[in-house]
């Protein structure tokens, strides 16, 4: 049973959803389609508010009345005919008041008449008391002002929805968008959106089996043979929670794998690897990286913007005599060649291409990090060997100093023996001198070998530093090349979509909206600057998109209303 707390929460969620629609679509110049999650939430919240505390009424034939009948009665009292009412009544496939009410809400969203139409229905207090109980949010001036204020903000958002749908009696269209949301500059035409959504038929719903499910009536709201709209919102939040749990589990598994790899690397570091083997491995890795860099540069050069333009303009396949391209380049050219034939697949193919390029860059960065780790381990072993070589050099220096002192001592002993004239002492001194000379020559040979090994280690270290520098330059070049390719592809996509949108507008006879020079204060009239009151009627000019009051606007029939200045510019004879 819905209470006051849940009602306040739904109104806050409605305001939050409107803010998300403006941030995600209006500011980024994107149309809202049937696959938008924000649209699903908005429709569910509107239906919940319109059905909340609605009195139970039945027609002459016993059919339960719904907010569709309330809207028809309210609009009939204020004006003679409403275009949305006439359009919905012409849909013969809609049999229930719930389906007709949903079709009317979607029509008002597309034609930017939702807030105005609902405000016209709320002008008569007697009609409100006739259709709603006291707990309805439309009987509270504060809540009514909050709801209408949020809905008036939707007049600045463009909705491209399929209006001819026969499945609204069962449920709202709850299928997700097949495409990843494009970049902020991408715009899709309503003709394309309507074509795609109409092909879905009555199968694409929020339920996987395509069948309707019964609903549970809220407190004060009648039960209808359609799924509960508020339960759809809760189901969306549960789905998001499950996705977060799965993402957390994946991250945890990745962290465990990283820890195992670190332990394996540490165990490998404890083993002594010869300097010559490390040098060979590093040289092989460097050669492989150079070959990969040359291949990537060759692939990047093969991608020509002129070929992409020709493929877009003619829609023909590549000739048999063309040079072979890399798999990523063939995927990119194939996706762009489908732009004239399948407008809906442009964003998907280019987004897949961008994802593929990012994945390749990630793999290259991972390989570079692995090579850097190997170089770091080799440097660590080299430092240990250099420290050992330094200790050996100090030891050899001390031994050489001891040999010099011994040689000097033997020289003095020999001179003393010669001076004494003892032949035996002289022979012993000469034998001792020869023995020490052999030891000195052997030690000198070992010292020369140690110095030679030290020089070779220094040369190896210099080569490793040079390889590290080349590896860094290689990674930077690959990253710059990939980012430049992504920027070029995004720019080309923007140009193609702008051309497509311009052609669609020219085909449909739609004039490009001219920005209004008047201030955009939502609380003031754009022409007379009168402050909008709670129940004052506000209109959005279909030409300059400015907010004007009833006095400063002109009714243009089925085309909506426009301000006086735009009307005079279009019809000079009216002045």
UniProtKB/TrEMBL annotation:
It comes from the Eukaryota. Residues 519-571 form the FYVE-type domain. GO terms for biological process: autophagy; cellular response to interleukin-4; plus-end-directed vesicle transport along microtubule; positive regulation of autophagosome maturation; positive regulation of transport; vacuole organization. Transmembrane segments: none annotated. The keyword Coiled coil applies. It holds the Pfam family RUFY4. Residues 287-300 have a biased composition (Basic and acidic residues). Keywords: Autophagy, Coiled coil, Cytoplasmic vesicle, Lysosome, Metal-binding, Zinc, Zinc-finger. Residues 235-273, 281-300, 308-327 are annotated as: Disordered. Residues 255-267 have a biased composition (Acidic residues). GO terms for molecular function: zinc ion binding. Residues 33-166 form the RUN domain. GO terms for cellular component: autophagosome; late endosome; lysosome. Residues 453-480 form a coiled coil. It is found in: Cytoplasmic vesicle, Autophagosome; Lysosome. InterPro entries: RUFY4_dom (IPR059036), Run_dom (IPR004012), Run_dom_sf (IPR037213), Znf_FYVE-rel (IPR017455), Znf_FYVE_PHD (IPR011011), Znf_RING/FYVE/PHD (IPR013083). The keyword Metal-binding applies. ARL8 effector that promotes the coupling of endolysosomes to dynein-dynactin for retrograde transport along microtubules. Acts by binding both GTP-bound ARL8 and dynein-dynactin. In nonneuronal cells, promotes concentration of endolysosomes in the juxtanuclear area. In hippocampal neurons, drives retrograde transport of endolysosomes from the axon to the soma. Positive regulator of macroautophagy in dendritic cells. Increases autophagic flux, probably by stimulating both autophagosome formation and facilitating tethering with lysosomes. This is RUN and FYVE domain-containing protein 4. It comes from Geospiza fortis.
